[in-house]
Design goal:
It is a single chain. The strands form 2 sheets. Strands 1, 2, 3, 4, 5, 6, 10, 11 and 13 form a 9-stranded mixed sheet that branches. The protein has a 4-stranded antiparallel sheet with strand order 7-8-9-12, with no helix packed on it. With 257 residues, the protein is mainly beta. The protein has a single domain, classed as Acetoacetate decarboxylase-like (Beta Barrel). The longest helix is centred in the first third of the chain and has 13 residues. 7% of the residues lie in helices and 53% in strands.
């Protein structure tokens, strides 16, 4: 694991040398992460209340993200670096956030908004977008094993805030082949949509279960809990899970325009 982290750190540092990074842009931080993403379709009216005026959910009508209007993303940030590629003051962190794919009416440009999050570090709340809460209950455990050429894993995530917000997931799975992807996405500030950050990503995604594309189902056991407080209306029992996605590696640079 130590050699893996060092290799990823070196790769992340190299992102600063890539062409196309405009001179007006500033890299705020870089990180190597592991992610578990759950795509939901939640109550449309409740979701609309979470967005600022002039924005709407951008819901895919085809493909693996079909019908998904909300993403719950559990993140193990196991190697966080500053813009200089050196370890940050807090070099690791665990959190979960809710992100909505969004657009302005009539636009074909799809961006993202993070509308809520729970983080183990009190100093990370409320964060750049003003939506994070400190979660005194913040637990994460991940394990991997291999036998006979088959790789398996298990993950347990639990985050809870004193005001009642809770997000947790428990999953056991067989590891499938991952597909490389990436790109740049603008994440807009829900308090002031004139402001945004750019997330530049290189990733590997393993779609373990999907209601639309029906890949081989690699999920062996699964359960989740979500709701309470500010997110109660989104998880009222009518929500539907449409995709279970694992990101065994996720390299992210956060850029200010």
């Amino acid at each position: 694991m130590k050699h893996c982290i060092l290799a990823i750190a070196a790769f992340v540092g190299g992102l600063l040398l890539l062409p196309g990074m405009g001179i007006a842009q500033t890299t705020l931080e870089q990180a190597a992460e592991h992610r578990l993403q759950l795509d939901f379709h939640v109550n449309d009216a409740a979701l609309a209340q979470m967005l600022p005026a002039g924005w709407e959910p951008a819901v895919a009508t085809a493909g693996p993200a079909k019908d998904a209007n909300l993403r719950m993303i559990f993140i193990d940030r196991f190697a966080i670096m500053g813009s200089d590629g050196k370890p940050a003051a807090r070099p690791s962190a665990r959190l979960v956030y809710l992100a909505i794919p969004v657009r302005q009416p009539g636009s074909i440009v799809i961006s993202q908004m993070i509308i809520h999050g729970l983080t183990e570090n009190a100093a990370d709340a409320p964060g750049d977008f003003g939506v994070y809460q400190h979660a005194p209950v913040a637990k994460m455990a991940r394990s991997a094993s291999a036998s006979g050429g088959v790789s398996s894993g298990s993950e347990d995530w639990e985050f809870a805030a004193p005001s009642g917000e809770r997000m947790e997931a428990h999953i056991e799975y067989q590891r499938g082949p991952a597909v490389r992807g990436g790109g740049e996405t603008k994440f807009y500030d829900p308090r002031d949509p004139a402001k945004f950050q750019i997330f530049k990503v290189e990733q590997a995604i393993d779609i373990m279960r999907n209601a639309t594309t029906n890949p081989p189902d690699h999920v062996k056991k699964f359960s989740y809990k979500a709701g309470g407080g500010k997110i109660a209306s989104l998880f009222d029992g009518s929500e539907k899970l449409v995709s279970w996605d694992s990101f065994p590696w996720y390299i992210r640079s956060v850029i200010a325009p």
